[in-house]
Amino acid sequence: MFTGIIQAVGEITQIQPISDDSNNGLSLRIFAGELDLSDVKVGDSIAVNGVCLTITSFCVNQFTVDVSQETLSCTQGFNQTGICVNLEKALRLSDRLGGHLVSGHVDATGIVVKFEPAGESYELIIRAPDSILRYLTHKGSVTVNGVSLTVNQVEGNEFSVNLIPHTLAMTTLNELVPGIRVNLESDMLARYVAGLLNI
């Protein structure tokens, strides 16, 4: 479980097949940036661009994770070295919940339609599939590449969020451009309510 409050920006430095079978996914080595790894151990969960992954090894400033073929098929951003990624260690019961409850199970990918200044902030508009749009509402929560954000508006097959300077400075969202794909996770509480109501 995570909060969507990014703790550091890292970088994918190495990508290798998990085995000779190309259907078994990839092993990623990630430079942890300023993320403190002193309290992690093999088997711990970490969110990488919003995807919950398991640490398979680590040292002072880097760690490795395995990404299954299933995860690769429904996410983006794990196929190239040099890519910067948002990092968050798993939530502890004693931690503050600064964002919202995030599972790290990406629902779908969306496409950036607009990313432009709006006063002192930036407006981000994303085109998303119906499978996630049905759970989005004005002032509700959404996770974009692991970042907890508040939905400003939902119109047709697009939704918009506002990005303040602090968010842009502390995450990779400042690198977004129209046409790029992003990992999306809807608010789990909205999904549970919809499931209970069968809507």
TrEMBL record:
Lumazine-binding repeat residue numbers: 1-100, 101-197
Record key words, sorted: Repeat, Riboflavin biosynthesis, Transferase
Pathway participation: Cofactor biosynthesis; riboflavin biosynthesis; riboflavin from 2-hydroxy-3-oxobutyl phosphate and 5-amino-6-(D-ribitylamino)uracil: step 2/2
GO terms (BP aspect): riboflavin biosynthetic process
InterPro entries the record matches: ATP_synth_asu-like_sf, Lumazine-bd, Lumazine-bd_dom, Riboflavin_synthase-like_b-brl
Reaction catalysed by this enzyme: 2 6,7-dimethyl-8-(1-D-ribityl)lumazine + H(+) = 5-amino-6-(D-ribitylamino)uracil + riboflavin
GO molecular function: riboflavin synthase activity
Residues in Lumazine-binding domain copies: 1-100, 101-197
Entry EC number(s): 2.5.1.9
Transferase recorded as keyword: yes
CDD domains: Riboflavin_synthase_like
Protein role: Catalyzes the dismutation of two molecules of 6,7-dimethyl-8-ribityllumazine, resulting in the formation of riboflavin and 5-amino-6-(D-ribitylamino)uracil.
Name listed for the protein in its UniProt record: Riboflavin synthase
The species this protein was found in: Nitrosomonas supralitoralis
